[in-house]
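Support request, priority: normal
Reporter: lab tech (M.K.)
Component: structure prediction queue

Hi team, I submitted a job for RDD domain-containing protein from Bremerella alba yesterday, and the status page still shows it as pending. I've pasted the exact input below so you can check whether something in the sequence is tripping the parser. The sequence length should be 185 residues. Please let me know if I need to resubmit or if it's stuck on your end.
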Amino acid sequence: MSDNSLGEADFYDPSDYIGIGRRLLVYLIDSFVMIVVGVPLWILVTTLWKFDLLQMDDPNIPFWTIYLISIWVYLVPIKRSRFGTLGFWLLGINIVSAQGGPPSLLVMTGRMLMWILGPFNFFLDLFWLGLDSERQTLRDCFMGTYLIKRDAKAIGRAPVHLTRYNAMGFALTYPRVCRPNAAGK
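Reply from support: The job had stalled in the queue. We restarted it manually and it finished. Here are the results:
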């Protein structure tokens, strides 16, 4: 009897998962977009501040408030939409939850915060991505998200079990789809 206490999740053909090269391009493109948004925003806020239209002592507070909200909008609701960020759109990438469909706003916010606040860093994420059979970063593993080709279709559903890893000083446990083996067991 199989344990399905964590439910079932979709899995895809291994060639449908996005690897290191395309992820790095997405990081570069989306970072450029965020800079392109930030620079004119800073110019606008400092211009308003200079002419005393903001009536504040420091332009940093309105700038960072608006800029952080715009980053959240870009990396959460837009990234999970069917269009995706500019990087996702140009490279034909989609982000999906393990259950299929777009991840929730809460999951995407958690994924973004794990990128910013840790506990994993950029290099550890890329290292893990190179070793993972489904090309997930650690934050994707914990948040139950996959980066796949835009036209990818799930090839099946399988039970989710907890996977345990002990490496590099980490004792990691996260949910993972247990694909059926080649013999169909």
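The chain has one domain: 14-149. The mean pLDDT is 86. Let us know if anything else looks off. Ticket resolved.
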